[in-house]
């Protein structure tokens, strides 16, 4: 295999798609910089603080999980636990069956993607409709999201207009305002017809048992205004110790994700609707999902559980920008996905062990991360693990270092190598070593100057 | 079901057991993430709220008469209003409006505007704070194209941190920061996706 899988994918995507992904992620990065640095004098200190809060939370989950469970129950919420994707799906199905319910609207839940909920429920005759505009478009296109906060970053308006036309959502019209209005009309009838709303949670406060859900479109709010049952799918790492922590995290999440001061709708949900409120759920369920998270917690990569899913590391990553989210072959793309996806894969780790290599280790992801996750360090640890587990995916297209190691351990051989290396400058291309040939496909090869530095040093110390 | 709970919790314990020390909860003031410009002590909170609401494409009015004039000029004459509010507002609105005080979800698209009470507001971000106790209908505050929240000036919190420490015990609190938005299609900003395309605050002294 000449290339790693991610390179193979990136080489095949259309110029149109590459331009969409590149433009979209760059714009996201620019607005983040503007919001953070215009608003704060020391945004880096805030990032570090947020990282400490989340690190404390995940390292004390043994305290916080029982605490949040008790609080939720006291608030009138029923709590369920799911060890894996299948059990989480089963919980939802049982809740649906017990209520003879067949229609779900869902909002803001990456966990539902992770556990494959929609396909599972459709098999059981239950409709499970995405309500975020981008996610809705993905669903009718039978695709997967390619970005954490901009799921259709890879699509342009013409493709969307065609898709709407094919799905009976009006004649071809690629005006974004018209596209949005049509989705508005279509989806509000779906909200009103659905019996059950499924959401995720951006944060859950152990202190109050409040679930915090943020959206810009208001789709989570509409789901929770129109339906009678609320089911929240929550990864066990979403817990924060207290309500006051949310001031730090909400401010950073909106700025890092979309360059906003706050996301438009920030909803704090601690139970079924209030006694006098006519709209909203009569019952509320929280399903805490493990699905590999406790394994991540036990690993030397547990810092990744701090992630608040803002997408900033995708926007800044030179590999993501060129390869697009689908190249990562998993629900979580980009630098965070390169760490999280192989870890969550459990026994299938070796199949995704090439992802940690999809990085130049430039460190930009760490610099923008609102919870200061040392992503490059984690990538290195996972590269090591991929090597130790002899993953074929990780080994693909990796040049052997045996010859280099031999040369580097014998000074005389090394010096001789430096001298002979000059031959590279005159060799015809097809005779170059493979690594050099691959390199020059997309770049120039600098002339060989081996040994020059040593010569220069010698002359310099004589003077 | 409880078996899964025990398994997960015991796996969490096992994962954390080898840690020699757990990361400590950091020390920080409540307002550590408040924008420096919002903590100037001389700032008029009402004015700051109005400015910030404008920055997120919201509108504010100080009296019901000018709000009614704005609605009329836009052709928005049919709406929903919280039954407790309407007796107070009807004089200022005058003739020419048809108002319903029960939100009928069968006619969700017939209402051009919805008027409900807000529990408060946040000056720093231009957000309106709604909760189940004061909002007469979640749908009435969400489905119509225009949402008007009536908020008392004295209930405007200076910043997010203060609003968070005063959440109270309502089971559902929502902060609305401007109209409903998306940039999903080619990053182009569109307002009025599932919620209102116009977010308005009527501030009462």
TL;DR?
The complex is a heterodimer of chains A (463) and B (205). With 463 residues, chain A is an alpha/beta fold. Chain A has helices at residues 5-12, 15-39, 43-59, 61-74, 85-98, 110-114, 117-123, 133-140, 157-166, 176-193, 219-226, 245-258, 293-298, 312-316, 318-323, 334-344, 364-368, 375-388, 392-395, 402-409, 411-420, 434-442, 452-462; strands spanning 78-82, 103-107, 127-130, 196-199, 203-205, 211-215, 229-235, 239-240, 265-269, 283-289.
Explain what you see.
The complex is a heterodimer of chains A (463) and B (205). Chain A is an alpha/beta fold and 463 residues long. Helix content of chain A is 51%, strand content 10%. Chain A is built from 23 helices and ten strands. In chain A, strands 1-10-7-4-2-3 form a six-stranded parallel β-sheet, with helices on both faces. Chain A has a four-stranded mixed β-sheet with strand order 8-5-6-9. In chain A, helix 2 (15-39) crosses helix 12, helix 16 runs parallel beside helix 18 and helix 20 crosses helix 21. Chain A is globular and about 90 Å long. Helix content of chain B is 25%, strand content 23%. Chain B is built from five helices and twelve strands. Chain B has helices at residues 2-16, 45-55, 64-74, 86-93, 160-165, and strands at 59-61, 78-81, 98-100, 113-117, 120-122, 127-131, 146-152, 156-157, 172-176, 181-182, 190-191, 198-204. In chain B, the strands form three sheets. A six-stranded parallel β-sheet of chain B has the order 1-12-7-4-2-3, sandwiched between helices. In chain B, strands 8-5-6-9 form a four-stranded mixed β-sheet. The longest helix of chain B has 15 residues, at 2-16. Chain B is globular. The N and C termini of chain B lie far apart (53 Å). The chains are: A alpha/beta (463), B alpha/beta (205). The interface between A and B is large, with 98 and 75 residues. Strand 9 of chain A pairs antiparallel with strand 9 of chain B, so a sheet runs across the interface.
